[in-house]
Design brief:
mainly alpha; single chain; rod-shaped; 8 helices
């Protein structure tokens, strides 16, 4: 009974205790990014493009998509048999870069059987250069993103600083400080977002550039091997014999 009496006596005191003030709601990451200004939309689109490029390059820029051991073994066997039409059919069914080079070479040799080996070599080198340029041009997009993203972040930073200086011009008391802190926050968020996209883009560019250089080296080795086999086949051709003039017997 005594405990109950003490609790009953404390009820009026508890009823008079003021409720704790409502704490300000914390913003989510999405709300913070939206409040950072219009430049964040461009940075978000750039980040999506960056992720898509990385996934695409991981799936396509690999040795099997340029030079495969299975195709090279088949090409070696068919070239030694001088089965050019069979190798041309195999090349049409494969999607590797070396298959496209072989296809161009064999298409030229079958249509021009009297062509010299120097012309065949030129066709192979031209197609190999085209494939190499295509690989290098694909990877350069990551370097472009790595340069554009920090510049966009700097643009958003300038907008935030302009907003901060605009808040200093008025005499609004506490609201002025709120606008000032909001402008500084916008500037820092844009800078961080630009660097967060640009730095990984340059890292992946360096990684894929090294992978492309290794693949190009293997492609050049494969093309050299194909040309060496074709050279042997050209050397097996029986040269036309020049007529021998016999001396007249007296």
């Amino acid at each position: 009974m005594n405990n109950f009496s003490l609790f009953a006596g404390a009820l009026p005191f508890l009823a008079q205790t003021p409720a704790p003030p409502d704490l300000p709601k914390t913003k989510s990451v999405l709300d913070t990014l939206i409040a950072a200004g219009p430049v964040m939309g461009a940075l978000l689109a750039l980040s999506i493009i960056f992720v898509m490029l990385v996934i695409t390059y991981l799936l396509t820029i690999r040795r099997g998509s340029v030079v495969s051991s299975g195709f090279m073994a088949t090409a070696d066997a068919l070239l030694r048999k001088r089965d050019y039409l069979g190798l041309l059919a195999v090349s049409n069914r494969h999607g590797e870069a070396i298959a496209r080079v072989v296809q161009k070479v064999l298409d030229f040799t079958t249509k021009n059987p009297s062509a010299e080996f120097a012309q065949v070599r030129e066709i192979a080198e031209t197609e190999g250069t085209r494939v190499t340029s295509n690989l290098n041009n694909r990877v350069i997009y990551l370097a472009d993103i790595g340069m554009i993203a920090p510049m966009l972040g700097l643009l958003g930073t300038v907008f935030g600083i302009i907003r901060s200086f605009g808040a200093l011009g008025g005499d609004l008391g506490a609201q002025r400080y709120a606008l000032l802190s909001s402008g500084v926050s916008q500037a820092l968020i844009n800078t961080a977002a630009g660097l967060a996209i640009g730095i990984p883009a340059m890292i992946f560019y360096a990684y894929f550039r090294g992978r492309v250089n290794r693949i190009i080296s293997e492609l050049e080795s494969a093309v050299t091997h194909i040309l060496a086999l074709l050279s042997l086949q050209y050397n097996k051709r029986v040269p036309e014999r020049t007529p021998v003039l016999l001396e007249d017997e007296f």
